[in-house]
Amino acid sequence: MTDVLYILPHDRPWFWDKKRLSKRKAAYLPRVMFEVCSQIPPKYSIRTIDLNLELTEGRDIFDVISEVLQKENPKIVFLSFCVFTQGKQIEDITQVINKSIPKVPIVMGGAVINQIHDAPIRYFPCRATYNGFGNEISAILRRYLHKGSVAECTF
């Protein structure tokens, strides 16, 4: 069982071009993934999914997310909502999570949350939101993993 599952949605259409992707000289960690994961205290186990890379393998979002959820059985899921055009993808991801592990809280953060604040709580099966890159992640983990709170909130 993994404590935290962090999902970075697909946001780079050129990653679909395998020829262009094959020219990359090195792998890299997206800044948003680094920023969020660096906020998670070392005592928690974490699994990350970068859909930008997963989808280049010819798989779809549902297969990738379902497989990881089944294997890792996370206690909490963090999901970045980086740009508004990811709305449908975010909806798909949250539905897969909610169907597979309905009691596990989904927490959204990212640039879009800075604009829409707690709106995801009303439109997605999301329990909490945080602004930006996750300075509030430690507080969120304390609330959901230690206190067992399931209340919806914005950090």
What does this structure look like?
The chain is α/β, with parallel strands linked by helices. The protein has a single domain (4-154), classed as Rossmann fold. Helix content is 41%, strand content 17%. The protein is built from 8 helices and 6 strands. A 6-stranded parallel sheet has the order 2-1-3-4-5-6, sandwiched between helices. β5, α8 and β6 form a beta-alpha-beta unit. It starts with a strand and ends with a strand.
Task: Give a topology summary.
Layout (H helix, E strand, L loop, with lengths): L3 E5 L9 H5 L8 H7 L8 E5 H4 L6 H12 L3 E5 L6 H14 L5 E5 H6 L2 H5 L4 E4 L5 H10 L6 E2 L1
Parallel strand pairs: 1-2, 1-3, 3-4, 4-5, 5-6
Short précis:
The protein is of the alpha/beta class and 155 residues long. It has helices at residues 18-22, 31-37, 51-54, 61-72, 87-100, 111-116, 119-123, 137-146, and strands spanning 4-8, 46-50, 76-80, 106-110, 128-131, 153-154.
The radius of gyration is 15 Å
Spell the H/E element sequence.
EHHEHHEHEHHEHE
CATH superfamily: Cobalamin-binding domain
**Mean pLDDT level:** 83
What is CATH's topology name?
Rossmann fold
Low-confidence spans: pLDDT under 50, at least 5 residues?
none
Beta-strand proportion: 15-25%
Globally, the shape reads globular
Output the structural class. alpha/beta
| Termini separation | 26 Å
Q: Could you name the CATH class?
A: Alpha Beta
Share of helix among residues?
40-55%
Number of domains: 1
- For the biggest β-sheet, the strand order reads 2-1-3-4-5-6
**Count of alpha/pi helices:** 8
Strand segment tally: 6
* The CATH architecture: 3-Layer(aba) Sandwich
Sheet with the most strands, sense and barrel status: 6 strands, parallel
